[in-house]
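COMPLEX REQUEST
Ligand: manganese (II) ion
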Amino acid sequence: MRILLTNDDGINAPGLEVLEEIARELSDDIWVCAPSEEQSGAGHSLTLNEPVRLRQHGERRFSVSGTPTDSVMMALRKVMPDAPDLILSGVNRGANLGDDITYSGTVSAAIEGALAGIRSIALSQVYSREGMADAVPFDAAREWGTRVITPLLDIPLAERTLINVNFPPIPANAVKGIRPVRQGFHDYSRGSLVEGKDPRGYDYFWFGLHAIEHTLDHGTDLEAIAEGYVAVTPLQLDLTHHQSLGTLADRFAG
Ligand code: MN
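STATUS: Structure written out below.
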């Protein structure tokens, strides 16, 4: 089994090392093609207005001066002689739950894989506090990685679907199990805005993240994580709200 690893935290991220450990339990044919710098929040963006550089770091290890989507595209079109059987993206430093998904470079790399018809799984390690960027406990991801990925290797997946996995921010031996759940929703628009003046006296603004309030709807990824489970959510690329089609058809009729 040929596996492509990527992420949005950059090729030197600790979570990518964790993902490599997980992947090597599954196969020896591991390829890495990841952004050269952190791309968290890049979503599914594709670099079109500037060139993208490709650097080789090892026989099967490459970085791309672009986004997670650029990295997957580069891997499939240039780096890999044959298409991978599986794409793993992560392990992200932080949650990709509920409404996080469309901002997520981690999930978007898996979306790019799904678009190419390749089985793709995004993996994220939830952690509870900001400001401890390099001290995220990847325990749960490391211990539960293959336990969640292995059963996903041969289940039938519809076209244009992918799997989003989040590991809870607790020690591996405290994790209660794996729970398939739907995507939840945050109650409030996310994030904070920090304002300041730069050294030259100009205003700057900086988007940040802070604790998000949410009610834990039953059966959601948010609830599963809060209750100490690994959350596994199937996602689809069809964003159509099918129930609204009839309403729109009525409005535009005649
Ligand atoms: Mn990230």
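REMARKS: Residues 2-183+216-252 form a domain with the Stationary-phase Survival Protein Sure Homolog; Chain: A, fold (CATH 3.40.1210.10). Residues 182 and 232 are 8 Å apart (CA to CA).
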